[in-house]
Design goal:
The protein is of the alpha/beta class. 36% of the residues lie in helices and 22% in strands. It contains ten helices and ten strands. The chain has a five-stranded mixed β-sheet with strand order 2-1-3-10-4, sandwiched between helices. A five-stranded mixed β-sheet has the order 7-6-8-5-9, with helices on both faces.
Length: 233
Amino acid sequence: MDANADEVTVAVAANFAGPLAKIGEGFTAATGHTLRVSSGATGKFYSQIVSGAPFEVLIAADDETPRRLIAEGYGLAGSQFTYAIGKLVLWSAQPRYVDDQGAVLASGTYAHLAIANPKLAPYGRAGAEVLKARGLSETVAPKLVTAESIAQAYQFVATGNAELGFVALSQVAVPGKPVTGSYWLVPPSLHGEIRQDAVLLKTGESNPAAAALLGYLKSPATRTLIQSYGYGP
């Protein structure tokens, strides 16, 4: 281990936890710095940061939370940038259950639809917008199973507690692994753009590893890796 290596404490949106684990391996190999990662819902991290949680970098699932943290004095002005555009899918662990038009949503053949809390998770908000766009908000309301984060929404579907769920493409289309079940890639026109931004927090201002991580996220090799997980550039 390099004597000048530091640890950086990172809060990462649940949809990006898998890609960040892979990115972290390359980052540590290249710099010697290590990551201490917590994953969860972006809205929950906002509350924790404002309450004094010692995170140094936030890798969010939206662009609004980093902007708000900068405006309120918790994030460093000029450090925010978009690292990925998220893609939403309607997923089932059952093969051939979800059709390529998402017609299954209106079919009524399912008992439960998992969704991350729209108040805390940007992917949950996008899922709610899809239901509204399709005119299904009221019909589907009794079937909704609200998860704390998109990772939990994925678990509900993976374990069969919900037949369907709105999750991130990055969770079901992992590079080098076969896709389990079936999914519909939701057209971006049905929900607001999921612009995912990262920001350096005031707590990490004097930690070289924090700045190094944000620099590494912008590197061409990392951008290619992020896209391989199904994110838009």
